[in-house]
Amino acid sequence: MPNAIDLTAYIAGFAASPLARWGGLAPWEITARAAEIVRELLAALPAGEFAVEGEVAIHRSATVEAGAVLKGPLIIGAGCFVAAGAYLRGGNWVGERCTIGPGSELKSSFVFAGTALAHFNFVGDSVLGAGVNLEAGSIVCNHRNERAAKQIFVQAGEGGALQATGSEKFGALAGDGVRIGANAVIAPGALLRPGLVIARASLLDQELPDPQ
Question: Element (H or E) spanning 134, and its range?
């Protein structure tokens, strides 16, 4: 479907970010191309600001504890903290001052400044805006395991009607300042408006009708 999603309406800093040139893509198209996009960004990094080993670039002001697993292509920005036991794979771009806590897994995602995966989180194939916080144990799912037809749908456009993405892997577009409570589950295909608060131990599935 045509991209009817204005990424700048969710992430205020998108247009000024290194991802701006991909702003014409839908978020699930960006995450599907995560490895390719991160490789392009790796090639354009400022010389000397990052320690680069293979396809992993870590800003010299970032802290990565022993025991974190970092798989390229990967960029970790200035002032970030990556804890022991964190697992990053599949092509990730992590902006400034982000936290990837112990036991957290990040896969094929783009994370803007000041966002935190606190402890024991999974975020797959997602775009997270600035200042997003995931409390302990909260999950952003990226795959419809429960059904034979795996295509993911999103609520986009007029009236919130479901629209096909053509993708079988997409987690969420989370706007700036979204708060996801402990042990909450975000089903695939979520579009979370800026500042939205998800209750602890809840399920958010935008393919399901709103309760009356």
Answer: strand 133-134
In the residue annotation, 119 being an active-site residue is answered as yes
DSSP lists the bridge partners of residue 99 as 81, 116
Catalytic residue among 59, 97, 107, 119: 119
Cα separation, 172 vs 200, whole angstroms? 18
Sign of the Cα torsion 155, 123, 196, 2 reads negative
What is the rounded distance in angstroms from the CA atom of residue 175 to the CA atom of residue 8?
9
Three-class SS state of 136: coil
Q: CA 26 to CA 6: how far, in whole Å?
A: 9
What's the CA gap between 130 and 127, in Å, rounded? 10
Write the CA distances from 166 to 7, 28, 62, 137, 179, integer angstroms. Answer: 19, 9, 36, 29, 28
DSSP 166: S
What is the pTM assigned to this prediction?
Answer: 0.96
Using DSSP bridges, classify how beta strands 185-186 and 139-140 pair: parallel, antiparallel or unpaired: parallel
Please state, in angstroms and rounded to a whole number, the distance separating the CA atoms of residues 8 and 100.
24
pLDDT of residue 157: 65
The stretch 166-178 carries a mean pLDDT of 98
